[in-house]
Amino acid sequence: MIRTISLLPALLAALLAGCHVQPRANDQLDAVLWSQTSVEHDALFLQVFASATRQLQHALADPAWDALAQPPRTLQGLPPAVIVDIDETLLDNVPLNARAVLADRPYDYDAWYRWVDRAQARALPGAVAFMQAAARLGITPYYLTNREAGQEQATLDNLQRAGFPIASSAQILTAGTAIGGCQASGSDKSCRRHWVGTQARVLMQVGDSFGDFMTTRGSQQAQLQAAAPYLPWLGERWFLLPNPTYGSWYSAPYQGHEGLAEQQKRAFKHKALKPQY
Ligand SMILES: [Mg+2]
Q1: Of 85, 127, 162, 192, which cross-links 90 as Cys (Cβ 3.0–4.6 Å)?
Q2: How many angstroms does the Cα of residue 67 sit away from the middle of ligand 1?
Q3: How much distance in Å is there from the Cα of 59 to the middle of ligand 1?
Q4: Which residues are 80's β-sheet partners?
Q5: What is the CA(10)–ligand 1 centre distance, in A?
């Protein structure tokens, strides 16, 4: 122990010598580090996709099986499908967050569009195997994403390059898609989900956001309450993946006012913490 302590200053000096500048505090650092370097991140993805894959045959065999939280509907004659989100569900975009941390700048939406257009994002662990298993069983995938309309071709190229079974960009439903006489605002997926429900019996939904399953608003407690009838579907019909880098939870403390300075956002985040139960 004495020997370890005596080596510590030298080790730190050697580590810091490799850095051009002293790293500044960045609220994304630990989330990005966990996503990119922890075995738990990859194991969770493998766990969730393996569980979903095991459930496919059972869901397919039950003609009443449905994963949409909407009034009961006639499922007879509808072909089986799965609804999957893309970003941080199938494709890993965290290198972009890592670049922002290393450059000590906030997340850059122009850089995001360029990243999508380059179509080089890699598949997340277990995702391709799950989608291929579904394809082998004749299950149609619908890719519901909040990528922008106009980025379907780049997204198709990326999904195909990463090994996902997708033949046409028509299977990619981007943000703001007016569909079936319904136009949702912003990132709300309810219109697209509802439309898929008119085309298919949805066996599963997979995503990294609760909004990938159903539309809920308000506090954490209010959202859980609204979803209460469907919570038993988690791990059965709804498969949720971890995303500590972004999501509606991230901007909730400062109510989505992205123009605020980082210090101001941080102050609101501090206010949202719960030091007592
Ligand atoms: Mg996502």
Answers
A1: 127
A2: 18
A3: 23
A4: 201
A5: 42
Q: What are the φ/ψ torsions at residue 165 (nearest 5 degrees)?
A: -80, 90
How remote is the CA of residue 24 from the centroid of ligand 1, in Å?
28
pLDDT in tens, the chain (277 residues): 445 555 556 655 655 555 556 788 889 999 999 999 999 999 999 999 999 999 999 999 999 999 999 778 889 999 999 999 999 999 999 999 999 999 988 878 899 999 999 999 999 999 999 999 999 999 999 999 999 999 999 999 999 999 999 999 999 999 877 788 888 777 889 999 999 999 999 999 999 999 999 999 888 999 999 999 999 999 999 999 999 999 999 999 999 998 999 899 999 999 999 999 9
Output the CA 85–ligand 1 centroid distance in Å.
5
- Residues with Cβ within 8 Å of 34's Cβ and at least 6 positions away in sequence, in order, are 40, 41, 244
104 C-alpha vs ligand 1 centroid, how far in Å? 24
Give the bridge partners for 239, in sequence order: 206
212: left (phi over 0), alpha (psi -120 to 50) or beta: alpha
How close is the Cα of 182 to the center of ligand 1, in Å?
22
Instruction: Please give the domain boundaries of the chain with CATH numbers for all domains.
Output: 25-243 (3.40.50.1000), 247-277 (no CATH)
Q: Tell me the CA–centroid distance for residue 16 and ligand 1, in Å.
A: 35
Rounded CA gap, 198 and 191, in Å?
Answer: 11
Specify the amino acid at residue 107: Y
* CA–centroid distance, residue 43 to ligand 1 (Å): 18
Task: For residue 157, give the nearest of 142, 168, 144 by alpha carbon.
Answer: 168
Ligand 1 midpoint to CA 48 (Å): 15
* Distance of CA 93 from the midpoint of ligand 1 (Å): 10
